[in-house]
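User: structure tokens for this one?
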Amino acid sequence: MRLFALLLAASALAGCATRPIPASKPAPGPVPMLEKQVFQMTPQEVHRYIGHAQQAEPDLRKRIAAIGRKNIGQPYKLHLLGEFPFELHDSLPMFSLENSDCVVFAEHTYAMAMSKSWEEFFWMLQRIRYKDGVIGVATRNHYTEVDWNLNNSWLVTDISADLAGLSGPSYELTVDRQKFLKTRHQTERSIPVQNSREYFLPTERVAEVAAQLQDGDFVNVVSTRNGAYWVSHVGLVVTGPDGERRFLHSSEPQVREESFDAFVARAREREERSAREGKNGQKLAGFKFLRLNDNIVVPPAAPQPRPGFASAN
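Assistant:
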């Protein structure tokens, strides 16, 4: 009787055990998701698409442009991403396919272009979004100039000063991360205030350096108001069929590709409208350009520290 009971228990346990899932093979013939834009795809379709993109276009610069254009029409939406469920300061997820803002669009495009699978894409996205790839609101690259650009120096290099020359303008940037984290994310951290000198190219000089820009270069749009300057928008450089350097970016109402002249013209229209309405709106001052590095070596992410008691509250 005891032997029978043991056999019965073993049989029950075997029934609960996880059974291996047979590996799926890509279906032969045309790939259906190629008819969709990326924001219309499921994660499973994105997995197949980025694997296909790696094989179809071996050149990283061209692959970035192709994947970015594959998202033209993606609806624009602010405040998309957070750290949920890794952290509970908000309920925003760690990726978004359906919508984008300017930073989300650039990060997702770079991450997809450098990956061969969904799993690698998700890892790469966090490597780009966070300092050393360590997930957390305090390590997220909040400030473009001193967080995103510097922490992703393995990916892009600021060439703004070289393009602008000795006479190029610059601005002093002061960043108080401790205050920002406390007021915006209810997160306490002891972080010293940082000052940085940032160089940029004035708007009227973009045309003269445009030919030096390359597919996949990172664009920082510099705005000004009341004497302060900061990066207010980002996007990517792509090359048109005629060799014209164009601006691919996520902006209200959706991802678009346009000439730099068209982008500047729209900015000037907004400024004139704000002036007529008596509003003290921000104004376009110029651009920072960061060159996509050659022979990129993606550094490993730092170990994810175990959250302490204070971090859990």
